[in-house]
Amino acid sequence: MSESKPPVNPVAPSSGAAPTVSIVATGSYVPERVLTNADLEKMVDTSDEWIFTRSGIRERRIAAEGEATSDMAAAAAQRALDSIGMRGEEVDLILVATCTPDMIFPSTACYVQQQIGARRAACLDVSAACSGFLYAMDIGRQYILTGSAKTVLIIGAEKMSAIVDWTDRGTCVLFGDGAGAAILQARGATHGILPSVLGSDGELSELLTLPGGGSRNPASQEVLDGRLCYVKMAGREVFKHAVTHMANAATQILERYGMTIDDVACIIPHQANARIIQAIAQRIGAPMEKIYMNVDRYGNTSAASVIMAMDEASRTGRIRQGDMVLLVVFGSGFTWAASLVEW
Ligand code: UT7
Fold first, then answer.
1. Pick from 186, 217, 233: which residue ends a domain?
2. Does residue 83 lie within any of the structural domains?
3. Catalytic residue among 37, 123, 245, 270
4. Residue 55 Cα, ligand 1 centroid: separation in angstroms?
């Protein structure tokens, strides 16, 4: 990190007048089963060479038979709780960001509550596709600042293997399963989580959808036969918008707090595609050494990607206490977000 200190968070100054909200623990979980590009070569007309050069992905994790999103979410949450000796009963609010809930209702957060014994918690899911974790973090932060909650558990968790069309080579090679969790609490001494830049553009919703199974196209034989219960993506269009919006959001949040790339120790972008990440780095003038990438091992895990990467970066010492970390995400909707977090 450079010598220049970031300006005081205007919403929650670190002067002691009001608390700031920090990530006090993280945890993550990935299923054991590894699906390599070589395995995919046997399933669809593709090659390791195509997948790796177009996306940077070498392998991804696939949930076990019967393993649901809430199971992975609860495992990640338990690891976060255990890392600071916290019990589930201490959690006031659980927010699960996911586009692959166990069921349409109840919320996946309620299933997590049951599994980690968070009896006192209020529970809800956040739907912002791949951007969901940063939306949930911003919501959780505000619950703490208003005094409505002391301890918020935010989770990004996805079982993408349940919604990808395993006959569509344009999408099935990209996604993977996993979960990450963070615990938020008020801390007086640091800048903590600064208010995020959040944005959406519903005009472009058709470019990345899962059309079937909701109220627009309820489950029916026709919906199943039309393969409408799987991800539909206009890859090249999504690629362009992902680069533009993530680069703009990253620039906007740095400008908002009077910072430059030099003030940031690590940039953790949504792990959708290594080429998207490289293009963003170029646009914002960030050296690749500052960018954290694990898309090669996990593919695109949607709402789980950024928190899985954060937890890994923290455990491996890539980010350390006091580091300023820039997070930036993009997903269906379209939705996007950028956050600055003092670790
Ligand atoms: O989480 C946020 C949302 N998702 C994303 O951010 C993903 C955004 N999009 C992408 O990452 C990229 O667009 C892809 C990786 C999906 C595709 O890369 P591309 O360079 O945009 O390729 P393309 O879709 O333009 O396809 C190029 C060619 C096509 O063949 P023709 O029409 O040129 O003959 C495809 O049919 O590659 C073909 N192709 C494949 N070939 C081998 C598409 N998928 C595959 C495949 N293996 N798996």
1. 186
2. yes
3. 270
4. 8
The 10s digit of each residue's pLDDT in 120-132 is: 999 999 999 999 9
Residue span of the structural domain in which 271 resides: 197-342
Q: Same structural domain for residues 101 and 51?
A: yes
Q: In what order do the strands lie in the sheet with 324-331?
A: 197-200, 335-342, 324-331, 266-269
Q: For ligand 1, what atom is nearest to the CA of residue 275?
A: 11
pLDDT tens for 152-189 read: 999 999 999 999 999 999 999 999 999 999 999 998 65
Q: Averaged over 255-269, what is the pLDDT?
A: 97
Q: Which residues pair with 336 in a beta bridge?
A: 199, 330
Q: What is the CATH number of the domain that holds 286?
A: 3.40.47.10
pTM above 0.85, yes or no: yes
CA of 201 to the centre of ligand 1 (A): 23
